[in-house]
Amino acid sequence: MERQGLNVKVSNNDCKSENISRKRKLAEHRKSLPVASVENLLIQEVLRNDTLIIVGETGSGKTTQIPQFLFNAGFCRDGKAIGVTQPRRVAAVTVAKRVAEECGVEVGQKVGYSIRFEDVTSSSTRIKYMTDGLLLREALLDPYLSRYSVIIVDEAHERTVHTDVLLGFLKKVQKTRSRSLNDSFNTENVNTNGLVLKKGNNGKYVSSLRQHRGRKLPPLKLIIMSASLDARLFSEYFGGARAFRIPGRQYPVAISYTRKHVLDYSETTLITIFQIHLEESPGDILAFLTGQEEIESIENLAKETIQKLPESKRNLVVIPIYSALPSEQQLRVFAPTPPGVRKVILATNIAETSVTIPGIKYVIDPGFVKARTYDPNKGMESLIVFPTSKAQALQRSGRAGREGPGKCFRQYPEDMFYKLEDSTKPEIKRCNLSNVILQLTALGVDNVAEFDFLEAPPRQAIFKSLEQLILLGAIANDGKLSDPVGHQMARIPLDPIYSKALIVASQSNCLEEMLITVSMLSVESIFYHPREKQEEARAKMKCFSSPEGDHLTLINVYRSAVDFLNKKKLELNKDKLEKSLRKWCKENFINSRSLRHARDIHSQIRGHVERMGLPLNSCGDDMLQFCRCLAGSFFLNVATKQPDGTYRDFASGEVVQIHPSSVLFRKKPDCVIFNEFVQTNNKYIRNITKIDRLWLLELAPHYHALKS
DNA sequence: GAGCACTGC
User: Fold this and answer.
1) Same structural domain, A242 and A257
2) Cis previous bond, A484, omega within 30
3) What would the mean pLDDT of A528-552 be, rounded to a whole number?
4) Same domain, A540 and A689
5) Which InterPro entries match (predicted)?
C-alpha cells in the first residue's frame, strides 16, 4: 500500500512506476488464482505420473499457470520445451502474450506461439502455445516430438477432430518414447535401441532415427486439460491415468425453465428478451440462436417491438453476431452501450467458445444448435438443427456468470434437460475423415481402421475415406502412402482432393490457376450478400462471373483483387493498402476476411509446391485447358442433368440441385463437377463448373470408364 | 432462391 503511494509521487518516472505497479498487480493476480495453491502438489503428480488429467473449470488459471510451474520445476532442462495446444488460434496467441508478460519477457523469446501463417517462436522458446492442428503438422517432421518434454492438450473436452487425432497420436508417441528409454537401459546400448517404429523403410523415420541415435529421449509427459466434469473417458483411455481437479472461479447463475413445452422458441425468446428488459436489473442479454436467418428475423421483430414501447423503455439495442458477418460488424458486440442502455446480443454458437462478450448477465437458451453431420454413404454433409447437450447447456449458462451472479432462461421444461445427451457427439464421429486418414497414414499408422481412437469413428466413414484416398492415388492397395503423390499430398495442408488437384494441374500447365482456385475454395464464402442490398450485390457479382462456372469466377475475383493491390502498391503504405483493399471488397460485396484468408493460404501453399519442385505454370487464356484440369481433379464429384432439370450425383445417385449462390444456377449445363455436397432445406451442390462428360472417360478412366 | 462453429510446418 505504502509503495503504491510512493510510485505515484515519482512523477518524472511515471512510465517505470506504471510498469512496476502493473507487474505487482500481475503477481498478485497470479497468486490469487485457484491453481496457485496447488503448485507443489501438481508438480509432484507430474513427476510421479507420465499422464495426468487436469479438470479445471473456467477461471482456474490452469492454461496460463501450469506451463510456468513446469518450467520453474525444471522440465525445460536440456533445452527441451513445453508444448501447449489450443483448439483455436486466438486462444494460442492471447494466452502466449499474457504468459510472456507474466514472465517479463518479449513474446517469441522464452514464451512464444505458433499458429498457421504466424510463428512467433525462437530457439530460446521453452513454453510454446500452438493450435492442435499445427502440432499434428509438426509431427510429420518430428514423429517423436523430440523437442518436447511435456505436451499439454488444453480444452480437450471440446473434442475437435484435431484434438482427438492428437490424443491418439500422443498416446502412441508416449509408448514409443518410454520403450526407447527402457530398451536402452536393458541393452545398455543406445545405438540399437527400439527407437524405430518397427518399419524403417520410410525415409522420414530413418532420418529421424539417425537424428536421435546415441541420445535417449526422456519419456513424454502428457497433461490433458479439460473443463468438463467427467474425466473418466480420458482417464480410461490413458490406462487409468490420475485425474486432478482444480476449482474454478465462476459466479452463481440462477437457471429457470419454462413450465410447458415450447412450440415456437423464436416467439418465447422474443418475449423473454422483453421480460428481462422490463423487469430485471441492468445487465446485457445474450440469446443463443441457430443461424443467420433466425437471427435476422428475431432482430427485426425485436426492433419493431422496441418502437412500440413507451419512449422511456426504448433503451435497448439489438446486436447480431455470427461467423459470416463481416468483422467490423462482429466488433459491435464489444462496443459499450451509452449509460442506461441495455444491449441484447443475438448469437450463434460463436458466442459459446470463440467470442467472449463482456457484461453479459442474462442468457437465453432455446436449447438448439445447428451442427454439421456427415453421411459417409452419400459423401454428403448436412446442416441440421439438434437439441443441445447437457454440457453445451452448461457452457451457455456459464456465459452469464463471468463478471457477477447471473441468470439463465432455458426455453424448455426442466424434465427436458435431463433427457438431453450428456455431451455433444465428438466431431470425429460426424465428419469426412479423408484428411484424418491421410495424416495418420503419413504418421506411420499402418491400419487406420484399427487405430486406437479415443472414440472410434464409424467404420463405414473410415472405409469411405480410404476408398477416396485410393481413388485419388494417395494410398496404395497395401494401405501405405504412395510415392511420391501420397507423400506430397500429406505435406500440403489442404483437403486431400485439393492437394491432388495441385499435382494434376502442375502436369497440365495450369498450377497457377489451380493454386488460386483451391485457395479460394478453402475459405468461407467469398461473396457477402446483405439482405437489404441483394440487387446491388448481384450486379457486382456479375462483373466477376464466368460462363464456365464458379471456379473461374473465383479466379476472376482473386485476380481483380491482386490487380487492385498492384495498382495501389506504389502510392500507399502497407496499412493504407490493406485498408483500401477492405474498401474495395466492401464496394464489390466481397467478404474481406475471407479474401485475406485466401491470400494467406495462397502464399503458404505456393511455398509448399515450390519446395516440392512443382512448376508454377499458367495456361494463360486457354480456359478449356483449365476446365479439363478441373474435370480431371474433381472427377469424384460429378453431377448430370436429368430430363426434369434436376441433377443426379454420379457417385451416390442422389437427386441434387445447383445451389442458388452459383453463377450456373439458371444456366443448367448438362454435366458439372462440384466441390461441395450439402443438405440444408434441399440437397445442394456448390462451387460448380460445366464440363464435357466425355472428358471424364479420358481423364479419369479408372473411375468413370468402369461405372458408366 | 440460400450460408453452425473451429482449424492446418
Assistant:
1) no
2) yes
3) 87
4) yes
5) DEAD-box_helicase_OB_fold, DEAD/DEAH_box_helicase_dom, DNA/RNA_helicase_DEAH_CS, HA2_WH, Helicase-assoc_dom, Helicase_ATP-bd, Helicase_C-like, P-loop_NTPase
CB contact set of A142 (below 8 Å; sequence gap of 6+): A208
Q: Round and report the angstrom distance from CA (A576) to C1' (B5).
A: 31
Q: Would you state the cell numbers that stand for residue A310, as one nine-digit string? A: 413507451
Q: Which nucleotide is nearest to A348 (CA to C1')?
A: B4
At A525, give phi and psi (nearest 5°). Answer: -50, 130
Q: Check whether residue A44 and residue A117 sit in a common domain.
A: yes
Question: Helix, strand, or coil here: A651?
Answer: coil
In chain A, positions 448-477 with C-beta closer than 7 Å to nucleic chain B are none
Alpha helices per DSSP H over A113-160: 132-141
Query: pTM here?
Result: 0.89
CB atoms within 10 A of CB A636: 18
- The answer to which of A23-27, A343-347, A481-485 has the lowest mean pLDDT is A23-27
Could you read off the pLDDT of A440-472 as tens digits, one per residue? 999 999 889 999 999 999 998 999 999 999 999
Residue A41 belongs to some domain of the structure:
yes
Across all strands, nucleotide nearest A381 (CA–C1'): B4
Beta-strand pair A683-690/A647-649: unpaired
Asked whether the predicted pLDDT for residue A194 surpasses 50, the reply is: no
Nearest protein residue to nucleotide B2, judged by CA and C1' positions: A660
Residue at which a domain ends, from A397, A425, A453: A425
Question: Of all nucleotides in the shown strands, which has a C1' nearest the CA of A525?
Answer: B3
Protein A675 CA to nucleic acid B4 C1', in Å? Answer: 19
- Examine the pLDDT at A579 and tell me if it is beyond 80: yes
- For the segment 166-195 of chain A, residues whose CB is within 7 A of strand B: none
pLDDT, chain A, mean = 87
**Is the CB of A521 within 7 Å of strand B?**
no
Residues A451, A559 share a domain = yes
A494, closest nucleotide (Cα–C1'): B8
Q: What mean pLDDT do residues A382-405 have?
A: 89
Q: What are the beta bridge partners of residue A114?
A: A119, A130
CB A538 within 8 A of CB A662: no
**C-alpha gyration radius of chain A:** 27
Q: What is the pLDDT of residue A184?
A: 44
Give the 3-state secondary structure of A588-607. CCECHHHHHHHHHHHHHHHH
Whether the per-residue pLDDT at A496 is higher than 70: the answer is yes
Q: Does the C-beta of A572 come within 7 A of strand B?
A: no
Cβ A494 vs Cβ A474: under 8 Å? no
Nearest protein residue, CA measured to C1' of B4:
A370
pLDDT for A383 equals: 83
The reply to whether A523 and A466 lie within a common domain is yes
C-alpha A554/C-alpha A591 separation (Å) is 13
Q: Give the position of cell 491470400.
A: A599
Angle at A226 between CA A222 and CA A230, to 5 degrees: 115
Listed range (A2-16, A242-256, A471-485, A598-612) with the worst mean pLDDT? A2-16
H/E/C letters for each residue in A235-250? HHHCCCCEEEEECCCC
User: Does residue A315 sit in the same domain as residue A259?
Assistant: yes
Q: Which of residues 220-249 of A touch strand B (CB under 7 A)?
A: none
Backbone angles phi, psi at A457, to 5 degrees: -70, 165
Strand partners for A53? A224, A243
Cβ of residue A162 lies below 7 Å from strand B = yes
Q: Decide if A52 contacts A223 (C-beta within 8 A).
A: yes
CA distance A315 to A317: 7
Residue A695 has pLDDT above 50, yes or no: yes
Q: How far apart are CA A457 and CA A442, in angstroms?
A: 19
Chain A, 341-380: which CBs lie within 7 Å of strand B? 348-350, 354-355, 369-372
Question: Do A377 and A465 fall within a single domain?
Answer: no
